[in-house]
Design brief:
heterodimer; A: alpha+beta; 2 domains; 6-stranded mixed β-sheet; 5-stranded antiparallel β-sheet; 8 helices; disordered C terminus; Transp-assoc_OB_typ2 (chain A)
C-alpha cells in the first residue's frame, strides 16, 4: 500500500530551541524521499512527526489526505525502521516479522505465512527460526525492514537505517532498499546525513539545515543546480566565487566577480531567490574544470597557477591560485594526463551551463568538505 | 623459596579456615541429622534415616512446609508483578519527583524486619485484619518488593526503550508492550528477582512469627520445636530447609545466569 504525505507549515520547538521551522513538503504516493542534512538539522524531528512519536507545535501533517493531528503511532499508516534495528531479542525472526500482524489480530497460520514471504523477500527465509542475536548487522537490518513492511504501511519511515553498517555493506543495502521500494511501491521517507547514500537511492532529496528545508529536487538537480549555498556545499565539493550582480540586460546578466567581470546568460540565473542586483556567488564543482569538450559553449575565468596536486586514480585533484585573485584557492579535478607540476599555468575553462549562480555570499570561504 | 612456600601454606590455611567458618555449622547440622541417638551432639553414634522419617511423618511440620511454600511463591509473585510495574512506570515515563519515588520504594530495604513486623502488626490491629498466612504474605511482599523493584529497574536500559517504541509503532497497546515485549525481554532479571524473593521469604522468621497465628510457616514451626530442646529431628528439618535453598540457587544459576551468559 502507498499514500501521499502532506506536511504544511510544520514547526516543532523544544523549549527555546526550534528544531523544525515552518516546514512544508508534499510527498507523492510511492516516492522515495530522502531527508538529508547534518546532525541537528531537524530531519529526524520531521521523521518523528510523521511517525507520531512527536506532535508538531504548529502546522499539520496529513497522510492520504487524512489529518494525523491526534492519531497515535500505533494507529498511523506508518511504520518505522530504527537505526539500532530495535528487533525483539526474545523472538524468532518469524515472530519478529509477524508481530505487527499479531497486534492486528491476524491468525497464526496466515501471519506466519506472510512473515515467511517477507523473510524470503529479504533473503532470510532459511533463518526464520533463528533469534536476532545469531545474525550479522546487515541481516538484522533486513529483518527490521521485513518487520516494518509486514503490516503493509502506506508510508515507511527509515531513521538512518544504514548508519551502523560498514561502507561496503551500506552500498549493497542501498541497492536492495531501492529495489524493494520499487517492488512494494510504498512511500519511503529515509533520513541520512550521507549525501552519496541520498543520491544513490532517492527519487527526490530534501536538503535540510537548521530546521528549514534548503532545497528539494531530484539528485541530479540538487547536485547540478542547487538553490542555496548550503545545498551546494552539502552535496559535494564546490568552489564558491563571491560576486556582485550588477544588473540584467537583454537576457544577459552583468556580474562583477573576484575573478573579473563576466556576463552570463539569464538562464544560468534561474533562481527565484536571486535579486536583480546585489551580492551573489558563483559556484563551480571541481570536476567541471576538467577540460572535456562536450561541444557546449565554454568560457574562461582567466588563468591560474597550480599550487599543488595529488593523484586520485580517476583524476588529479589540484589546488589552483587564480592570477586575478592570488589569495583564493580553487580546487579542480584535472585529467590523468595533466601536468600538475606546481607553478604550471592553466586556463580556468568551464562549460557555461555548469556554472551555478546562488544568492548571497558564503559566510566562511572555508573548505566545503568540512561541512559534511 | 622458603618464604614463597610458606606464604602458599598460609593462603591455603586461610582459605580452609574461611570456608570452615562458613560451612562447618551447616556440615555439623547435616551430619547430626543422621545421628543414631537422642542427642545431636558428638560423639557421632552411626547413621540412620530415622529422623528424616519422623520429619516426613510429622503432620504439623509438613503443613508448615506447605504453608511456607505457598507464602514464599505467592508473595514473591506479587512482589515481582508490583516491582515490574513500578520499574516500568519509573523507567519509561516522566513522573513527578521520580527520584523521590524511587527512594521511597527502596527505603524499606534499610528498615529492620522487626520494625516492619511491628508496624504491620499494629496496622492490622488498627484496621481489624486478623492474623493469618495472608498477613505473613503481605509482610513478605513488603520486604521483597524493594528488592524486586531494584533488580528489575536496574535492567531497564534505553536500548529496550527503542524496542518498545518499535512495538508501539507496529500497533501494540501499552499492556501488550509490557506483557509481550518488555517482560519477556527482562525475563532473566525478573526470574532472578523471583527466586531471590522466594529464598528470602522461605527462611524469614521474625515477620512470619509476629504476623501469624494458627497456621504458621516452617521457620516458626522449627522454632517451636527447638523450645522443647535439641533433637536430631530439628537437624533433619533444618537440612531439608537448607537443601531446598541450595536447590533454588541451582535452578536460578541454571535457568537464569547460564541463559544470559549464552547471549
Amino acid at each position: 500500500m502507498t499514500a501521499p504525505v502532506s506536511i504544511r507549515n510544520a514547526t516543532k520547538t523544544f523549549g527555546e530551541f526550534t528544531a523544525l521551522n515552518d516546514v512544508s513538503l508534499e510527498i507523492e504516493a510511492g516516492e522515495f524521499i530522502v531527508l538529508l542534512g547534518p546532525s541537528g538539522c531537524g530531519k529526524t524531528t520531521l521523521l518523528s512527526l510523521l511517525g507520531g512519536f512527536l506532535s508538531p507545535t504548529r502546522g499539520t501533517i496529513a497522510i492520504n489526505g487524512r489529518d494525523m493531528g491526534d492519531v497515535s503511532p500505533s494507529k498511523r499508516p506508518t511504520t518505522t525502521m530504527f537505526q539500532d534495528y530495535a528487533l525483539f531479542p526474545h523472538m524468532t525472526l518469524r515472530d519478529n516479522v509477524a508481530f505487527g500482524l499479531k497486534m492486528r489480530k491476524i491468525g497464526k497460520t496466515e501471519r506466519h505465512a506472510k512473515a515467511c514471504e517477507l523473510l524470503d523477500m529479504v533473503g532470510l527465509k532459511a533463518s526464520a527460526l533463528k533469534k536476532p542475536h545469531e545474525l550479522s548487522g546487515g541481516q538484522r537490518q533486513r529483518v527490521a525492514l521485513a518487520r516494518a513492511l509486514a503490516v503493509e504501511p502506506d508510508v515507511l519511515l527509515l531513521d538512518e537505517p544504514l548508519g551502523a553498517l560498514d561502507l561496503k555493506l551500506r552500498r549493497q543495502m542501498q541497492d536492495e532498499l531501492k529495489a524493494i521500494q520499487k517492488r512494494v511501491g510504498t512511500t519511503f521517507v529515509h533520513v541520512t546525513h550521507d549525501q552519496e547514500e541520498a543520491m544513490a537511492i532517492a527519487d527526490r532529496i530534501v536538503v535540510m539545515n537548521a530546521g528549514k528545508i534548503e532545497d528539494v529536487g531530484r539528485p541530479e538537480d540538487i547536485y547540478m543546480r542547487p538553490k542555496t549555498l548550503f545545498a551546494a556545499s552539502f552535496m559535494g565539493e564546490v568552489n564558491f566565487i563571491p560576486a556582485t550582480l550588477k544588473g540584467r540586460d537583454n537576457g544577459m546578466a552583468e556580474i562583477d566577480s573576484m575573478l573579473g567581470s563576466i556576463s552570463l546568460p539569464e538562464t544560468i540565473l534561474a533562481n527565484d531567490a536571486l535579486p536583480d542586483q546585489g551580492p551573489m556567488t558563483l559556484a563551480i564543482r571541481p570536476e567541471h574544470f576538467r577540460g572535456v569538450s562536450t561541444g557546449a559553449e565554454r568560457m574562461t575565468l582567466g588563468s591560474a597557477k597550480i599550487a599543488d596536486g595529488a593523484f586520485f586514480g580517476t583524476h588529479y585533484r589540484a589546488h589552483l591560485a587564480p592570477i586575478a585573485a592570488p589569495d583564493m584557492v580553487i580546487t579542480a579535478h584535472m585529467p590523468q594526463s595533466a601536468n600538475i607540476e606546481p607553478g604550471t599555468m592553466v586556463e580556468l575553462s568551464i562549460d557555461l551551463a555548469s556554472i551555478i549562480a546562488l544568492p548571497g555570499h558564503p559566510q566562511t570561504p572555508a573548505d566545503p568538505a568540512t561541512q559534511g | 623459596m622458603i618464604s614463597s612456600r610458606f606464604s602458599k601454606v598460609i593462603s591455603w590455611a586461610y582459605l580452609i579456615a574461611l570456608y570452615g567458618f562458613i560451612f562447618l555449622p551447616v556440615i555439623v547440622l547435616v551430619l547430626f541429622s543422621f545421628q543414631d541417638g537422642r542427642l545431636p551432639v558428638p560423639p557421632f553414634n552411626g547413621a540412620t534415616l530415622k529422623w528424616y522419617g519422623e520429619v516426613f511423618a510429622d503432620n504439623r511440620l509438613m503443613a508448615a512446609l506447605g504453608n511456607s511454600l505457598m507464602v514464599a511463591i505467592g508473595s514473591s509473585l506479587v512482589a515481582c508483578v508490583l516491582g515490574f510495574c513500578a520499574a516500568y512506570g519509573l523507567a519509561r515515563f516522566v513522573l513527578p519527583a521520580s527520584r523521590l519515588q524511587r527512594g521511597i520504594l527502596i527505603a524499606p530495604m534499610t528498615v529492620s524486619y522487626l520494625i516492619i513486623a511491628l508496624g504491620l502488626l499494629s496496622t492490622f490491629n488498627w484496621i481489624g485484619i486478623s492474623l493469618s498466612l495472608w498477613t505473613v504474605g503481605i509482610g513478605h511482599v513488603v520486604i521483597n518488593l524493594p528488592l524486586c523493584f531494584a533488580i528489575i529497574y536496574a535492567s531497564m536500559g534505553d536500548h529496550q526503550k527503542n524496542i518498545e517504541r518499535a512495538a508501539r509503532d507496529l500497533g501494540a497497546k501499552e499492556w501488550q508492550v509490557m506483557t509481550q515485549v518488555t517482560a519477556p525481554m527482562l525475563m532473566p532479571s525478573i526470574l532472578a528477582a523471583f527466586f531471590l524473593s522466594v529464598t528470602f521469604s522461605w527462611d524469614e522468621f521474625i515477620i512470619a512469627f509476629l504476623l501469624s497465628r494458627f497456621d504458621v510457616t516452617l521457620p516458626v514451626e522449627i522454632w517451636s520445636l527447638l523450645r522443647s530442646g535439641l533433637n536430631p529431628k530439628t537437624n533433619a528439618i533444618g537440612s531439608v530447609v537448607f537443601l531446598f535453598s541450595i536447590a533454588l540457587l541451582l535452578v536460578l544459576e541454571l535457568l537464569v545466569f547460564r541463559r544470559t551468559a549464552k547471549k
